[in-house]
What we know:
Layout lengths: L17 E6 L3 H11 L5 E7 L2 H11 L3 E5 L7 H10 L5 E6 L7 H7 L3 E4 L4 H12 L4 E2 L1 H13 L19 H11 L4 H8 L3 H15 L4 H10 L13
Helix pairs in contact: 2-3, 3-4, 7-9, 7-10, 8-9
Amino acid sequence: MTGPGGVTGGSGPGRQAVRVVVADDDALLRAGVSLVLETDDRIEVVGQAADGLRAVALCRELLPDVVLMDVRMPGVDGVEATRRITADGLPTRVLMLTTFHHDDYVWGALRAGAAGFLLKRASAERLIDAVHTLAAGESVLDPAVTRDLVAQVAGRSPAGPPPEPADARLAQLTAREREVLRLAAEGRSNREIAALLVLAESTVKTHMKRILTKIDARDRAQAVAFSYRGGLMAARDPLGDC
């Protein structure tokens, strides 16, 4: 366990724990999240930061697998911190923590390179699972967060992403791949997509890999950003029955 802005040592000989930095300007929340994560012996909290500038510095210094980033922090906020981490080409994957699903910063963070979004009210199990999911190279998109992005695009509200013409890469996707991408953009997991489309989960994973290759996306979160920019999600209200 660390103090604010501090770092810890290793997790013991031979341990292959997921190394995490927790960034939030609320000291009690930082401590609470760190305690929750360290109930899992496969996770090690190696640092804490009270603002985005310190979070970026710790990521550059420690190269953690995952950083849990608060969206709103003084000085350098979570969006700008995410942009700097991504621009530096660091191996750290960013999981944004937001209080409200309609947080105006969410779209900016997605475009900045965040690999996932989770509401702060998420359960301990959900938080731990999200960290492992990001560390494994996948993304976590809370349905409550993606619901608002869909609404913003459909309503073309000022806070929403600017409308852009369909990308030529979108035309490369098959009808099935478009459906998988739509469901992923709604925040559905591979397991949920498999159940909805009556496919094997391994088949969904294969579709996602092909989608990422065709649209030149780094990960699932970047694919979601692409789906909004390309107008794929404006075609219907996919979350109306959630």
